[in-house]
Amino acid sequence: MKMDIQYTSERNAQIVISLLKAHGVRKIVASPGMTNICLVASIQTDPFFEIYSAPDERSAAYIACGMASESGEIVALSCTGATASRNYYPGLTEAYYNKLPILVITSSRRSDRIGHNFDQVTDRTSPTNDIVKLSVQVPFVRDEEDEWACVVAVNRAILEITRRGFGPVHMNLETMYSPAMCQKPLPNARVINRFFVGDELPSIEAKRVAIIVGAHIKWSDGLTRCVDIFCEKYNGAVLCDHTSNYTGKYKVFPNIMSIQKKNDFDYRNADLIISIGNISSSEYAMQAKESWRVNPDGEIRDTFWNLTKVFEMSETYFFKYFASIKEYSDEMEYYSTCVQEEYSLINRLPELPFSNVWIARQTIDRIPCESIVHLGIRNSLRSWNYFNVEKNILFYANTGGFGIDGSLSTALGISLATEKLCFCVLGDLAFFYDMNSLGNRHINSKLRILLINNGTGMEMHFPDFFADGVVADKDSFIAASGHYGNKSKTLVRDYACNLGFEYLEASSKSEYLEKLDDFCSREEKNYPIIFEVFVEKMDEDEAYNIVSSINGKAHNSNDYSLKPSERLANQKHATIVVFGTGSFFRDNINSVREKTSIKYACDNNSEKWGTEVAPGIICISPEELSKISNPFVIIALANTSDSLIVTNQLLDMGIKKFDHLSNWIRYEEKC
Ligand SMILES: Cc1ncc(C[n+]2csc(CCOP(=O)(O)OP(=O)(O)O)c2C)c(N)n1
């Protein structure tokens, strides 16, 4: 007889259970308690698992050691709060030094309660060094980002147990004691796998492959060749910005497209992303279902929220292997589409005001071949990334920490380690932050600094960015305008000249172009140069606006950083459905109607289907809801547990745009 297994409504526990199954973790030693009820109650009826009970946690951990060493399988432990997990220490110490595959799942009420005299809530956020290889938190899921964080953390924890020699790993699973055990079937959580050199590697079925390169050190010719051949065989393209330093045949520069307010370009439609390199300042809004990460560090880094495979190996090994198992294909359709889109947009770019973007456009092709350019965080980096350059220039930016504090020092460091010309482009806040480095006695004549002085931190001014929606006055404290001589014409000049720099200055397009040849000259100079360019922040603003509107305007349909009522305003094209038709719905329906027009109500109770639950509002079934295109669901349930069940139900139906009416009410009460 098929058993009717029901799982907890707590999403984080569902994710743990689903991934235990996906990674083949069957054996569990459970100790008694309250906070692990949701987990244990769910798995005890699932015949996949083989559960043993051990009332004493100290003994449980040693039992797991014995089972793990004899079976060679991963053995999971489950315990509750109080001092339960403390009693795992002796057994885990044994497991750590004997490299036994044990997964410790400690359950707990929410970690926010640690240290506030709540009974049994102990701190498990930093375990002793030699009891586990890794410890992760699996918090209660309240939104999409929590869910993503749980999926990644649980995959990472399970994969770590068998990586680079076995060993115990810990996860702390939060609970809210949800009584509902009505989830069936168990929703699948995204599985991440890791591959090593020598493993049988998976095949690539994707029709279009986007290789996305973050900040990357200089490429070897061998790696460039392997990637280019890979692109020719798999209909691939290399999506990158300057800091990627890729100079091969299949380079696409999508920043000019991805910055568009209306980004409806086909470059986004790759089937697979292969991610290499480090942190990038570029976001391409890809639509790919899946991403793979290739890096010798083998870490789980889910930059695109859809990671399924990590390849712990060199990039060259990876691309060479995949290129070797496939014939050439005639199709380079993906690359040609991307490049056509990129160039057609660049060709439509109108004249810009005198600004960082205008300067980038004028200057990038004038930088001599074989130079090095260091781009300041972040307006300079962004502006220069709109424009591709077909020359051998090496680019750097401090994208590791994104600080504005060390651009000049880093550029100086580069100039000390090369014979090449070194350019540094940066804003005034970044310049003054680090200007003492210009007095360093090792400064040399290879250094050329382009200072774009707009008298403010432009990042905080741009109309589309977060700060704009928050406050009107950004100059006073948000963007730190007016400091450092407030665009003084003499401050930098005198400092630079006194330190032996050649000083150039421009306040208009014509002045800039007049001096650009000198600044970019290939000729060896006797002095380092500072070229200070004074631009107006209004022009910076306008230039950004023009660049980001070449393809027309559009709005963001699902911006989670907005207040609840603002989110509604962004759902103009969605069909609004209220889920739940009980008393909470009846009490609040009028106030919801004041904010938006409701198309339907929906309920799990079949008796309500087809009836008018409020004047003019018909109740539909969840099945009917799943057929509506572009729904936005307002969950009208006061009880957290019920809301959770419906949240899970919607996610399972593929509906990701929803909000909780209770949040709105709380928000309005606060205001
Ligand atoms: C050390 C540090 N402090 C603060 C920030 C936040 N931040 C990012 S960009 C930016 C403004 C930089 O202004 P500026 O250098 O004048 O360049 P602009 O944006 O005006 O071109 C700030 C303050 C940061 N990245 N690093």
CATH topology of the largest domain: Rossmann fold
- The total of beta strands comes to 25
Structural class: alpha/beta
Q: Main sheet: which strands, in order across?
A: 7-13-12-11-8-9-10
Q: End-to-end distance, in Å?
A: 56 Å
What general outline do the C-alpha atoms trace? globular
Note the quaternary state here.
single chain
Please state the CA-atom Rg, rounded to the nearest Å: 29 Å
Helix content: 25-40%
Whole-number count of domains: 4
Low-pLDDT stretches = 554-562
Compute the number of helices.
22
CATH superfamily of the largest domain: Thiamin diphosphate (ThDP)-binding fold, Pyr/PP domains
In CATH, the architecture of the largest domain is 3-Layer(aba) Sandwich
Mean pLDDT: 92
Report the bound ligands by name, code or SMILES.
thiamine diphosphate
What would CATH call the class of the largest domain? Alpha Beta
Q: Proportion of β residues? A: 15-25%
